[in-house]
Amino acid sequence: MNASKGLASRAVSVSPSITRVLANAAMDVDGLIPLWFGEPNQPTPQFICDEAARSLSAGETFYAEGLGRPYLREAIAGYMSDLYGKSIGKDRIAVTVSGGNALNLAFQALLEQGDKVVTLTPAFPNLLAIPSLQGANVVPHKLQIKDDQWHLDCDAFLETAKGAKVVLINSPSNPTGYMMPREDMQKIMSVLRERGTWLISDEVYARTVYDDKVAPSFLDVSEAEDRLIVINSFSKSWAMTGWRLGWLTLPPSITPIIEKIAEFSVACAPPFAQRAGVVALQDGEDFIRQTAQSYKAARDQVCSALLSHELVSCPVPDSAFYAFFKIDGVDDSIAFARTLIDKAKVGLAPGDAFLVGEPGWFRLCFAQTEQQLSDALTRLSPFLEDPEKAQ
Ligand SMILES: Cc1ncc(COP(=O)(O)O)c(C=O)c1O
């Protein structure tokens, strides 16, 4: 008997992560510079690690509350209230085991089989896969490029969003760095409020902005009981990708539902990681400021090198840590990325992974040292100059 015959069709049909497949195949390539994954190259700051070690030594190794330890929920509520200049109560906060887990819980709480979910593309692939795996009909709406910047026509988007149960917006965006202006948030929020549509706002890059303290947020333009769920994570801002810690900001009436369903998946976030989360929030501002400055310098280094090639176009981002660029003349991005692994020894994520809808696009994560980036750009240069070399 073939065991795989009896599997759920959603699980079988969901596309695997293209980037993961490429990266796995390149595991043994000696000297490869991997710029395909979305994570900072530096380890978690020592003061955060020390707090987790202290917690472990103190025996904090037991199950914790489903919504998170009260002291972390309190710390997150205080951090969010300060950041957005409005009172956000602890009753609105649920600690999760990563931003990814937060997205899963939010969709689990909202979706019925066949519900329409509308989201923006190019997108982080998990944003399409998570609702699809939960039985939703996911409808992508493509951002456009206007004056060399990613741009959303709000009216067209709201037209696509008609009949949706959930609208999912990721701003600042992975992979484009698109940051939705506050006025557009205001407009979208008020139309969705009128329609009774849910909005899930993925704001895991809220602090990865170069010229401000924080990106515009749907929390700026909403009330506590609006149908809005905001996703946050410790992964990017505090270089804690491996810790698996995030949180949801919810309408208070939804918090008990999240508590109930969290119990049936991961039960709780590790208590020592939660202790570390508190010090990250309280003492992490210098780290956030310094890394934002270094990402800005890396952005300048990478974008100016890419744009020096005639065939390359690249909207220059003000947030997140990705250059999402197009090489004219490349008609198969996945094959091209494979050749770059072999010939240039640089790992890039092909645009197909983000549903960009046309060939020639690539994502490069520049949360790396200047030297790594400089080496990678030197190696890429001949292929950017003449893509035929790789085909
Ligand atoms: C837009 C976006 N949302 C959510 C996540 C998930 O982050 P994590 O699960 O590490 O918290 C990522 C990670 O790359 C992301 O880019």
UniProtKB/TrEMBL annotation:
It catalyses: L-aspartate + 2-oxoglutarate = oxaloacetate + L-glutamate. One of its GO terms (biological process) is amino acid metabolic process. Its cofactor is pyridoxal 5'-phosphate. Residues 36-380 form the Aminotransferase class I/classII large domain. One of its GO terms (molecular function) is L-aspartate:2-oxoglutarate aminotransferase activity. InterPro entries: Aminotransferase_I/II_large, AspAT/PAT-like, NHTrfase_class1_PyrdxlP-BS, PyrdxlP-dep_Trfase, PyrdxlP-dep_Trfase_major. Keywords: Aminotransferase, Pyridoxal phosphate, Transferase. SUPFAM superfamilies: PLP-dependent transferases (SSF53383). Its EC number is 2.6.1.-. Belongs to the class-I pyridoxal-phosphate-dependent aminotransferase family. This is Aminotransferase. It comes from Cohaesibacter gelatinilyticus.
